[in-house]
Specification:
- The protein has about 250 residues and is an alpha/beta fold.
- The chain is about 45% helix and about 15% strand.
- It has two domains: about 150 residues, NAD(P)-binding Rossmann-like Domain (Rossmann fold); about 100 residues, ProC-like, C-terminal domain (N-(1-d-carboxylethyl)-l-norvaline Dehydrogenase, domain 2), CATH 1.10.1040.
- The chain has an eight-stranded mixed sheet with strand order 3-2-1-4-5-6-7-8, sandwiched between helices.
- The longest helix is centred in the middle third of the chain and has 31 residues.
């Protein structure tokens, strides 16, 4: 399978590692507009201009959502062009042969991802092209699943809630701990148990805390301890949301 990978961000680098370590995948070129070298350490040609691009079976776009359409428009009209975005419709790609290859994970610069643990959302306009994307995911050891654009965008929204928003709350928690010379490590067992419980219970069954108990004294004391106006609003909003959700559950 001949592939050209476009993009060298967090996901792009992870895909590059997976491709060069999979013998069945022939990575023809890697597009990195800011690259200083013409060749990777593994001997893969690196291009900095789309004018240098060669013909391949698949052009995989791992670039910013805003640049996606512009770059796709510069690729051959008869090509099979695929993006990796969670919240961009497949139809944003102008080519007739188009698709989506969406790995559902949070990617960081210095972590090597094991794709065998990752669900990969697959979508395409053609059954043969869908089969090609399924094969690519399997070659990487991934867990492909057919998802429509609507399903994928909903999944991406859900991922923002469980990952991005949760991490922001962890950032606030770490700052609160630091204000009283407390180690954030004290919270780690609780974090692990919070995630572990979702393996046995549905999330709404695992809910605990003062909002669920309607413990107004504790809620009031917490709010008095929060000096950051944004965090105070977050606390109030989530408390109200929890209480409203479980009040409706009783109806």
């Amino acid at each position: 399978m001949k592939i050209t990978l476009l993009g060298a961000g967090k996901l792009g680098k992870q895909l590059y590692r997976a491709f060069v370590n999979t013998p069945e995948i022939n990575l023809v070129q890697w597009y990195d507009r800011s690259a200083l070298s013409k060749e990777s350490p593994e001997g893969i040609p690196i291009i900095t201009s789309l004018s240098e691009i060669q013909e391949t079976n698949l052009y995989l776009l791992s670039i910013s959502d805003d640049a996606l359409v512009e770059v796709a428009n510069k690729l051959p009209s008869t090509s099979f062009v695929v993006h990796t975005a969670g919240s961009v419709p497949m139809d944003a790609i102008p080519q007739k042969r188009r698709g989506v290859f969406y790995p559902l994970q949070s990617f960081s610069e210095n972590q090597v991802i094991d794709f065998s643990t990752i669900p990969i959302g697959i979508e395409s306009t053609d059954e043969k092209d869908t089969a090609m994307l399924m094969q690519l995911a399997h070659l990487m050891g991934g867990r492909p699943q057919n998802l429509s654009s609507n399903q994928r965008e909903t999944l991406h929204l859900s991922a923002v809630l469980v990952n991005n928003f949760t991490n922001h709350l962890l950032t606030h928690a770490a700052k609160l701990c630091a204000s009283q010379n407390l180690s954030f490590e004290l919270l780690r067992p609780l974090l692990i148990e919070t995630v572990r419980k979702t393996e046995q219970l549905k999330p709404h069954e695992a809910q605990t805390g003062p909002a669920l108990r309607n413990d107004q004294k504790t809620i009031h004391r917490h709010l008095e301890r929060i000096y950051d106006p944004a965090l105070k609003n977050i606390y109030k909003t989530l408390t109200t949301s929890i209480q409203t959700y479980y009040e409706n559950e009783k109806l």
